[in-house]
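Methods — Computational structure assignment.
A single polypeptide chain was analysed. Its primary sequence is given first, followed by the predicted tertiary structure written as structure tokens.
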Amino acid sequence: MGAWFEFRAVGLDFLDEAPLRVEVAVETTLSRQQVWAFFIDASGWSAWFPGVERSGYGEEGRPPGVGTQRTASVNGVRFEETILAWDEPARWIYRIDRCTGELATAQVEATLLEETSDGGTRVVWILACDPLPPMASAADVLPSVLEGQLAQAVRQIERLVSDGVVPRIQGGSR
């Protein structure tokens, strides 16, 4: 169990003000509602997002939404996060409150689901942070790494949908 590193509490405006901002996008033929259902089902991320070992919401029995705490373990690093925006089925944004890796002093991640002209979805992932040296030194390769992860995640969601997998959480907010 590693030491925890506290992040600065920032809001939605940090998406535009962060010293480092990376935006990547991948398209799918799946509808926004289908993609949304996978993103908001925290317990299911390990089945489709690269490196996620486990994740979940902190308040069992309450519908998740703005203000909900989420925990995750990704490639051996533990995260505690707070949901900042939950606009079904278009926008899901969270802030990292603390983690067991020295990544940044503040970080917000956004997933935007935009409907395409053919009824599919353009999945946009934005990572906005105030990076510490290890992450800052990787800034040049970060876009290709994140795009690769997002593409792999979306292709896995497509496979799960074709196999008839239905996420546990189907929507709702509080």
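Note: The CA atoms of residues 93 and 110 lie 4 Å apart.
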